[in-house]
Amino acid sequence: MSKKVISLIIFFVIIPIGILIGATLLEDGKYNLISMFVMVFSCIPFFLSFERRKPDAREVLIIAVMSAITVAGRAAFAFIPAFKPMTALVAITGFKLGPEAGFLTGAVSAVTSNILFGQGPWTPFQMFTLGILGYIAGLLGKTNWMESKISLLFYGIFSGIMYSMLMDIWTVLSLGNGFSWIVYGSKIITAIPFTITYMISNVIFLWLLTKPIGDKLERLKIKYGVMQTT
């Protein structure tokens, strides 16, 4: 089985199932266990992506630095609800460093930033959602499609909608009555103002940050020969 298939199974099957089982069967106090589960499994494809060698310390450091920048970005805009550079920074990491690095940066950023903003049973959902957005960005980054402003516009809109819709799954489950498509639909409608804000902030920060940060990541890849197999 190829590493790419393993990554897809972990990110789109194992982790979602683990989160849903934890959210529906375990008590709220177990969310730390679920977060650890997500973190461990999100690391596996990242390390597998380096084939026969172990990741260089500089490669791990780049992920840590991008996660720290993402957390700082969330803190800097904490006074504006839903207007954050987190998704954009995670996406840029995925664009330049690959899908696995994008997912890991998203998951780490979510759980780390919640140390400041509050951990809870919603944390694993945030880890998965930001991780998936980073993973998709990594897949898109393998093409030349993400080089234009128009493509960044579409990704910003798409990621804002996807973040809202995935987090609304948690909103429905948190009500304690199981999952209902009717309730889910009503939550999506209620969340429209926040979804629009997500989309606007994603587009703005992608336009502002993709080139300066992306160019620096490219230089690091060339200078140190890191992330060449992602």
Folded structure, characterized:
Helices cover 78% and strands 0% of the residues. The chain is mainly alpha-helical. The protein has a single domain (3-224), classed as Arp2/3 complex 21 kDa subunit ARPC3.
Q: Pick out the low-confidence regions.
A: none
Largest sheet: none
Silhouette: globular
Series of H and E elements: HHHHHHHHH
CA-to-CA gap between the ends?
Answer: 17 Å
Protein name: ECF transporter S component
Pfam family, one: ECF-ribofla_trS
Organism: Kurthia gibsonii
InterPro entries: ECF_substrate-spec-like (IPR009825)
Task: Please name the defining characteristics of this protein.
230 residues; mainly alpha; Arp2/3 complex 21 kDa subunit ARPC3; 9 helices; 78% helix; membrane
Write a brief caption for the model.
The protein is mainly alpha-helical and 230 residues long. The protein contains 9 helices and no strands. The chain has a single domain (3-224), classed as Arp2/3 complex 21 kDa subunit ARPC3 (Orthogonal Bundle).
Reconstruct the topology from this structure:
Blueprint: H1 3-25, H2 31-48, H3 57-76, H4 86-97, H5 99-117, H6 123-141, H7 149-173, H8 181-190, H9 192-224
Helix pairs in contact: 1-2, 1-6, 2-5, 2-6, 3-4, 3-5, 4-5, 4-6, 4-9, 5-6, 6-7, 7-8, 7-9
